[in-house]
Design a protein that fits this description.
This protein is mostly beta strands. It has a domain of 52 residues. The chain is 7% helix and 48% strand. A four-stranded parallel beta sheet has the order 1-2-3-4, with no helix packed on it. The radius of gyration is 25 Å and the shape is elongated.
Length: 95
């Protein structure tokens, strides 16, 4: 068993490791057990291997916020669906 911090290009774990890994590639083989925090470009966990902790993939962008527009918005509020005409749903409501 090994405890500590690893900073390297490529890391392969086949035994027990507890700590922090900062690498371009971390591979945990079938006999490997990793507990801790990893910050890597690539993470490979073979069948039978164990990983208990948190991981962050380098270069991965945070999730984007999606903006949802309400159905039936007119041209002023961003609906580019026509020449300023009301949508079918809005026309039915107006009567």
């Amino acid at each position: 068993m090994c405890d500590g911090d690893i900073v390297a290009g490529k890391v392969m774990i086949s035994g027990r490791f507890t700590g922090t890994v900062d690498a371009e590639r971390l591979e945990i083989v079938a006999s490997g057990i990793v507990t801790g925090t990893v910050n890597v470009g690539q993470l490979v966990v073979e069948s039978g291997a164990q990983f208990n902790g948190t991981s962050k993939i380098k270069g991965q962008e945070p999730p984007r916020q999606l903006r949802h527009e309400k159905a039936g918005e007119d041209e002023k509020s961003g609906d580019k669906g026509g020449k300023g005409e009301k949508s079918e749903a809005s026309a039915r409501k107006a009567g």
